[in-house]
Amino acid sequence: MNNGNEQAKILPAGDSCLFVDFGSSIALDINGKVQDLRVKLEKRSFPGVRELVPTYRSLAIYFDISELDLDRFIGELEALLPHVETPDPSSVRKVTIPVCYGERFGPDLENVASLHGITSDEVIRIHSTGEYYCYMLGFTPGFPYLGGMDKSIAAPRLDSPREVIPAGSVGIAGTQTGIYPIESPGGWQLIGRTPLKLFDAGRTPPILLEAGIWITFSPITETEFERISRQVSSGTWDVASIKDGGH
Amino acid sequence: MKFRIDQPGMLSTIQDLGRWEYLGQGMPLAGAMDPLSLRTGNLMVGNSHNTAAMEITLLGPSITVLEGEATAVVAGADLGLTVNGEKWPCWKCFALRPEDRITFSGPAGKGCRAYLCLSGGIDVQPVMGSRSTYLRGKLGGCSGRALQKGDILTTGKPHPLWKKFQGFRCSSELLPCFGEQNVLKAVPGPQDYLFTEKGLETFFSSEYTISSSADRMGYRLEGPVIEHRDGADIISDAIPPGSVQVPGSGQPIIMLADGQTTGGYAKIAVITSMARCVLAQLLPGGSVRFQRISQREAISEARQMEQKLSKLNEARAVFSTRKETVNPDRIMEEDARSGSMKLKIDGKHWDIQWELIE
């Protein structure tokens, strides 16, 4: 099967980790292979493999030094690689994040709009009709690296970053869009907020998103924001409700 | 056993071997900076390797035992441990009873981190599968923060023979050695190809100084500039603990327990698991050198260390079966030439004298 995976490189990373690099650019098909290898390795449960970290173009495989038979594992990896491919789009998980745009949740929404000579409603329409691919999580627990934002609403980071960006804030920085899972300082242009907790240490699952999924944003009113917030606070909000359009 | 923190010391946190299951979702590993010392201490008091202990940094805490008993050991650097005012060595198990006081008089030699391991471990609520403290994320350990004055902690269920480990001191060849060396073995890669031959040569032959920016997240080093082929930026990928990132400045940063899980600077090498323990005992102002090692050689060395730990575990088990009817919990004074010894056994003081008869 010639799917270009002879280009994949297996690289050492210290004494307890291997990287499998699938390419040198940010691209859906390359990342799809990273996700596919991760799924295949998870299914196999090779003894000694501790954790898999998917990133833009490479999968890091952390292993237990005393348990893993390195030669045997690399042999298995090499046998597996020709079968790794970008998953069928219909099999990829999609989630919808409810967002209340503007007002007190999106102090920079009008700024983004006037940058492009369009209305705030137009910004909301463009942002909420886009489909975003989550390449990986990193930077802080649960923070998604999203691709696919329409350049017509791109906006540079603030000259002076804010000291406090509330958790759940949805923002734009350059041509990237994203959501802050926890409160932190930052320079993103804030256009809205989700009542969902992307990261909640006490919940199962603690982290809502994962790499290799598609995300859409769904506009909600302030009233709905309050309603969902109350459910989230009281622990009655259903995690499964973000699948494929429901909330 | 229940105990209270009277003074927290410089930075005392609850750590086990880290939070593994969520590395792929942006959650840093956290956990002990010197995992070898933590594991050794745990084995000495009959705990499993991954049991939660107190990581002590440079200036240790003052602790009072409120209720119950335990077997304890301080594993790692000599930070001046005293028990009820008397000096007690690290790497030797001792008894703790109500009203006992532990203090630390300050670093006595090399090394800056040690682990107070208690039989049964420190019983805090696990968060996302681990009792390690992730300070930046304010979670895990004791309410996600360093220990403070007034904190009250308890131990968990100990090994059934926990009391028999008191007095156990394993032989020096089974102890991890650190603090006497500053050579960090490192496996080149995963982005060593982004550096020139000259850059790699500089990295593996120069001395680097640990700057004042050195903490649980990482150690910034200062020294000869490391040359990239074509810039320092990569498309963000994973950062295994021990990774040596080299940004555009050419000055290396070694990423450690609390470091971010992913990042965009080229990684010239990743130091070995054992080298991370060596580094964890070094302070700002100290110097390090890197030594090239292949991944296979590094794994082989690490496995030798695992064998040492197994031997230590056996030695501890053997120690607990020794046929002694008396178990001194403290030898106050010992003078073989004069034939006298002062012991404290079960809280009572004994004065023993003997005579050479041949």
Describe the structure.
Chain A has five helices and 13 strands. Chain A has 247 residues and is α+β, with helices and mostly antiparallel strands. In chain A, the strands form three sheets. Chain A has a seven-stranded mixed beta sheet. In chain A, strands 1-2-4-3 form a four-stranded antiparallel beta sheet, with helices on one face. In chain A, helix 3 packs across helix 4. The radius of gyration of chain A is 20 Å and the shape is elongated. Chain B has 358 residues and is of the alpha+beta class. Helices cover 15% and strands 31% of the residues of chain B. In chain B, the strands form five sheets. Chain B has a seven-stranded mixed beta barrel with strand order 12-19-16-17-14-13-20. A six-stranded antiparallel beta sheet of chain B has the order 7-6-9-4-1-11, with no helix packed on it. Chain B has a five-stranded antiparallel beta sheet with strand order 2-3-10-5-8. In chain B, strand 21 and strand 22 form a beta hairpin. The longest helix of chain B has 26 residues. Chain B is globular. Chains A and B meet through strand 2, strand 3 and strand 4 of A and strand 12, strand 15, strand 19 and helix 4 of B.
Give a topology summary:
The complex is a heterodimer of chains A (about 250) and B (about 350).
Chain A: E1 9-12, E2 17-21, H1 28-44, E3 49-54, E4 58-63, H2 70-80, E5 94-101, H3 109-115, H4 120-129, E6 132-137, E7 144-147, E8 162-165, E9 169-173, E10 176-179, E11 184-186, E12 189-193, E13 213-219, H5 222-234
Parallel strand pairs in A: 5-13
Antiparallel strand pairs in A: 1-2, 2-4, 3-4, 5-12, 6-7, 6-13, 8-11, 9-10, 9-12
Chain B: E1 2-7, E2 13-15, H1 35-44, E3 53-57, E4 62-67, E5 70-76, E6 81-83, E7 86-87, E8 94-96, E9 101-104, E10 113-118, E11 152-154, E12 183-188, H2 197-205, E13 207-214, E14 218-222, E15 233-238, E16 243-245, E17 253-255, E18 262-265, E19 267-271, H3 273-280, E20 287-292, H4 295-320, E21 330-335, E22 340-345, E23 348-353
Parallel strand pairs in B: 12-20
Antiparallel strand pairs in B: 1-4, 1-11, 2-3, 3-10, 4-9, 5-8, 5-10, 6-7, 6-9, 12-19, 13-14, 13-20, 14-17, 15-18, 16-17, 16-19, 21-22, 22-23
Helix pairs in contact in B: 1-4
